[in-house]
Amino acid sequence: MTPRTVLNRSLLALAGLVLLGGGLLILFAGLGLYRRHGLAPPADWPLTAADDVLLGSADRARWSSQGWWWWPAVIAILALVALLALWWLLAQLRRRRPGALPVGSTPPQEGVELRDRALSDAIASEAGALPGVARAVVRITGRPAHPRTQVRLTLTPRAAPGAVLDTLCEGPLRTAHRSTGRPDMSTEVRLRVARHKPHRAE
Amino acid sequence: MTPAPDPSADDSAPSPHRAAVPLTKEPKGPTAPGPPGHHAPPLDPTADERGSGHRSHRPWSARRVPAMLVASVILVAAVAALVDVVAVRAGRPAAAWRRHLADALATRPVGDIWMLVGAAVAAAIGIWLIVLALTPGLRHWLPLRSPAPGVRASLNRDGAADLLRDAATRVPGVGKARVRVRRHRVKARADVRFRDPQQVKDDLTAVLVEERDRLALARPPRIAVRVRQRTD
Predict the structure, then answer these.
(1) pTM of the model
(2) What ipTM was predicted for this assembly?
(3) What value does the mean pLDDT take over residues B119-126?
(4) Which of A1, A149, B71, B164 has the fewest Cβ atoms within 10 angstroms?
């Protein structure tokens, strides 16, 4: 999984837990489940009975009389939350590209670099010429130390995906990975088939 | 999660030598009858060596769309609250939405129907977000057997369905075929125009098994075939 996947999934789980916890807290108190089942919530439990309110005037008075630092702290926290949310949003739109890849295995050749665009174009043109492939789109993502190849192939209606995948790995991908000195560069291949009408011609 | 596919795991295939049907339109005869229970080895010669080395998982989605939605909601809420708090500190009256919200939170008890509905919706969204965080997603992509270390491949379900449908249409006697591909099962329904329906069904099963093996799926789905006689 990419770092962005881990980040997204962690934050989604966190948001889900907050929503679920808050919702259950209100539901338990609002439906009177504590009393009905004879449960005794801890002493400082926020909501216990159906006639509690979420934010009573006593609470508001208590919070706003905390001192001079209260409102600056609220503003700072809100600003921080807004900035983090903006950063999270923008992280979805950005696509990380390595730019230039070091060439050669260990140690990399000094002063020799391969543009990611050149590598992906080379793979795409070679993959597009394979039998059974109608269209090939290749992107290199990730950081220069850990580039990843994304290959999207559209197969012709008569292609055999297993065979195409084998020739792809033995041809263009092996060449590319050998020429960059990364024989095990992580690669994701997505195959789809060109839409077509049913036909029975041999 | 067994990597080795077993072409025998089909629902409807009484014929023991169904793997040997030619794709051409000649009248069919059992060309290579093997002993019962024995499947023609050329069907899947490389399955074991290819399938055993590297495990194939479904790719995990980055969950970009849910992340964007949640981030947008948090951003809008935080900015609105920030603007209003700053405005109140600067001496202006609070915005109407904030007064309404504070009023509702202060007067509606948690037993109020709207509070309960809101809480239930929040809990449901919470469960949904947790499910999104923990499941792989990308259910429309079927993982393929990985041909080399570091390479992960998948085929989308519509593409698999198109390929299987074309294969089914090539079976002699089949007029029209519809194929639905799900993650663990392929359902094929075909109209039989001529020939014995049972024979057509056997051929169809064999051809679909063969085509399924050409797809090189990491977890080959079971194949269920239904035929219907149509002579009009």
Answers:
(1) 0.74
(2) 0.81
(3) 96
(4) A1
